[in-house]
Amino acid sequence: MRRRLLTSTLVVAVIAVLLLGVPLGVVVSRLIVDEAAQELGAEAKRLVGEVEYARVQETPLDPQQLEQKYPGRYIQIWERGTPLRVTVVGTPPPSGHLMTEDAQTNTGVYVRISRDRDQVERDVRARLLLIVALAVAALAVAVSLAVVQSRRLTLPLQDLAKIAERLGSGDARPSKHRYGIPELDRVAQVLDRSATRISDLLTREREFATDASHQLRTPLTGLTMRLEEIVAASDHPEVVREEGEAAIVQAERLTAVIDELLAAARRQRHAQAEPVAIDEVLGQQVTEWEPVFRDAGRTLRLEGTRELKALATTGGFGQVIASLLENSLRYGGGTVTITTSSGDNYVVIEVADEGPGIADEIAPRIFDRNVSGGGGTGLGLTLARALAAADGGRLELVRRRPATFAIFLRPAEEDSRNRVVSGPA
């Protein structure tokens, strides 16, 4: 592209110089020749007047004085009389190329004055050389400007090509480069917006993979435990049947978790909260987690007000409780107590243990992504709070030591069983 710009600019400059320089050279040449002829004619007329004046004064012509007065001129003067008087001043040019003008009077005085034409032509050539030099200088300036302009245009285009190539390779960082050219700046802005969108998409994909691996771990662990119980109780059909039904429930819960994660990844999750029996969801979670706590030598206890109902989704609320129980199992200690209560505005479910609690330096950021006090992933509480918010509720840390988390859900009144609350994804 740079070569094409230089070539096109040079062609335009040459055409412009030729269109202006050739007529200018012709005009200047004619002006110089015409000026020399006019000057020579004026000298001839003036010399005729001087000769006529000398005749009236009866003063003889002095050739040396005329030669000094008209240097570089070859002068011939004829005066009518008897005999005819001829006066010659100067010498003819050695080249033999003469430019001649003459003048005469009615009294018989005839003057012819000549000069070297080669001198006039040298003057013409000097002016033409000046014009050519100016034309070459103009071409040089045009080429310089073309080089600067081509660099100004091609370097941003090369930079934009590198940005586009970087986007194609997966590096979605906005460049924020601007070049002072409105058209190129608009292209750069479009690429920056595309980079931002691609970066958001990649971030969501990475978050989805991370969230999926974290959220699927708990249901898979529970399902594995059920299958191990089935294998261990293969000689007891009643136990096998019971554990098989529990495994089916775990598999259905796993499917629900996958559906919720996929919907959230596509930004299409609109939690349709409906009245949920709190005791039913908590009972299911206690049943799933009690063997795990028992194997760890700990106790899981359910207390508080019974037969509460709140606006939530069964899968989302269950995931929040599972995340809190897993967090307590890994980082807490002692007995874990799930307490339910109700107020005028919220149904409250508290999950507390008897462990060392949460350090003061991370407590304000405990719900931030990738923040963990025990070397974990730092995703469980973040996802749990997001799920609670999606159901129109909230998850809060109400006490640091021992750690106590509270879920606040909107109560479901008897006359609003069909009410739908949409929360953010």
Automatic annotation (TrEMBL):
<keyword id="KW-0460">Magnesium</keyword>
<feature type="transmembrane region" description="Helical">
    <location>
        <begin position="128"/>
        <end position="148"/>
    </location>
</feature>
<keyword id="KW-0843">Virulence</keyword>
<feature type="domain" description="Histidine kinase">
    <location>
        <begin position="211"/>
        <end position="413"/>
    </location>
</feature>
<dbReference type="InterPro" id="IPR003594">
    <property type="entry name" value="HATPase_dom"/>
</dbReference>
<dbReference type="InterPro" id="IPR004358">
    <property type="entry name" value="Sig_transdc_His_kin-like_C"/>
</dbReference>
<dbReference type="GO" id="GO:0004721">
    <property type="term" value="F:phosphoprotein phosphatase activity"/>
</dbReference>
<keyword id="KW-0902">Two-component regulatory system</keyword>
<keyword id="KW-0812">Transmembrane</keyword>
<protein>
    <recommendedName>
        <fullName>Signal transduction histidine-protein kinase/phosphatase MprB</fullName>
        <ecNumber>2.7.13.3</ecNumber>
    </recommendedName>
</protein>
<dbReference type="Pfam" id="PF18092">
    <property type="entry name" value="DraK_HK_N"/>
</dbReference>
<keyword id="KW-0904">Protein phosphatase</keyword>
<keyword id="KW-0597">Phosphoprotein</keyword>
<dbReference type="InterPro" id="IPR003661">
    <property type="entry name" value="HisK_dim/P_dom"/>
</dbReference>
<dbReference type="InterPro" id="IPR036097">
    <property type="entry name" value="HisK_dim/P_sf"/>
</dbReference>
<keyword id="KW-0346">Stress response</keyword>
<dbReference type="Pfam" id="PF02518">
    <property type="entry name" value="HATPase_c"/>
</dbReference>
<keyword id="KW-0418">Kinase</keyword>
<keyword id="KW-0464">Manganese</keyword>
<keyword id="KW-1133">Transmembrane helix</keyword>
<keyword id="KW-0808">Transferase</keyword>
<keyword id="KW-0067">ATP-binding</keyword>
<dbReference type="InterPro" id="IPR040868">
    <property type="entry name" value="DraK_HK_N"/>
</dbReference>
<dbReference type="InterPro" id="IPR003660">
    <property type="entry name" value="HAMP_dom"/>
</dbReference>
<dbReference type="GO" id="GO:0005886">
    <property type="term" value="C:plasma membrane"/>
</dbReference>
<dbReference type="Pfam" id="PF00512">
    <property type="entry name" value="HisKA"/>
</dbReference>
<dbReference type="InterPro" id="IPR050980">
    <property type="entry name" value="2C_sensor_his_kinase"/>
</dbReference>
<dbReference type="InterPro" id="IPR036890">
    <property type="entry name" value="HATPase_C_sf"/>
</dbReference>
<keyword id="KW-0378">Hydrolase</keyword>
<keyword id="KW-1003">Cell membrane</keyword>
<dbReference type="GO" id="GO:0005524">
    <property type="term" value="F:ATP binding"/>
</dbReference>
<dbReference type="GO" id="GO:0000155">
    <property type="term" value="F:phosphorelay sensor kinase activity"/>
</dbReference>
<keyword id="KW-0547">Nucleotide-binding</keyword>
<dbReference type="InterPro" id="IPR005467">
    <property type="entry name" value="His_kinase_dom"/>
</dbReference>
<keyword id="KW-0472">Membrane</keyword>
<feature type="domain" description="HAMP">
    <location>
        <begin position="151"/>
        <end position="203"/>
    </location>
</feature>
